[in-house]
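Example (one chain per record):
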Amino acid sequence: MFQIATLNKISRKGTSHFTDQYAITDAVEKANGILVRSHDMHSIEFSDNLLAIARAGAGVNNIPIEHCSEKGIVVFNTPGANANAVKELVLTGLLLAARNIPDAVSWTKTLSGDIGKAVEKNKSQFAGREIQGKTLGVIGLGAIGVMVANACEMLGMKVIGYDPYISLHSAHALSNTIPVVTNLDALLPKCDYLTIHVPAMEATKGMIDEARFKQMKNGVCFLNFARNTLVNEDDLLAAIEAGKVKKYVTDFPNEKVLYRSGVICLPHLGASTQEAEENCAQMAVDQMMDFLENGNITNSVNYPACNLGVCESKARILVLNRNIPAMLGKITGILADSNINISDLSNRSKGDYACTLIDVDSEVDEMELKKSLAVDGIVSVRVIPGK
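Predicted structure:
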């Protein structure tokens, strides 16, 4: 029986996928798996029972990734599951800014007396511009960026994508009439609108700064539905004050930008739709179940994708280790010395860590195997019974 803890409300559409091999628990210290959305996990003590954490969403800033890697806890996320929800909100933000909708709504709520006369006299102050024919730059062409780019092209915008590391999947999904550039500095001066969709990491922190704002068109509208850390907000406010940025639309309000003229703040609504929450929950649960039952890893942020399908052999051995030379040889050599015959094997690496899945045609004593594999570089060992 696998014990699963939920640190946030997880859609029933996801948790209903659990079979009778699973039980939901409030005792995090007993959990073999944790499902989480936004709960901050950095201060949580992880027990040796914990094998996996599944984030029902894409961002994993709330999870101590390196600590999990060191303990052999596989962290999953659900890329693409909320992509359509975020795409639709980006389109909403684009139109809100282009047509000055928030200011117009706020002003309308102050009306009294002869409302019709007041509207006709004053509505011109909220006149906006149409997006058709305008140029949109999409910074980052992952699942969300591609969907935004394609949708905006269908709305009549001229779209240019930027991504120096575009994946084959994204390249195929992107409209073949949308050009992709690998030089951000060359893209910025061409765009009436810019939207950013890159992951938050050390390399992207503050990537939109004073120098980048200076390269943008005067009066540009900039949308950020990715992460607020991508933008140097002091430089942003200076760019708004100078008239370089006409509107900044963000899903990440804070005191620095919340009450500023030219800023439209939304309360982190990107994935806040029923459909997105259901999609994320289902993907998170399915990935966790496949890992716990078969050792397969899909969409992990700290360990490589590794898959041998459903375990139909006598047993399957899952080894998580540091990605250092000769580790696979050590593992297979130890199995040979233990008279364990390998029927199938998959070995993958990702950054500092690697995963090896090994199907064997005999039953394995997990405790004895762990003793044999207690060598430098091995992070964790688990034996999964066959079906």
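Caption: The longest strand covers residues 342-350.
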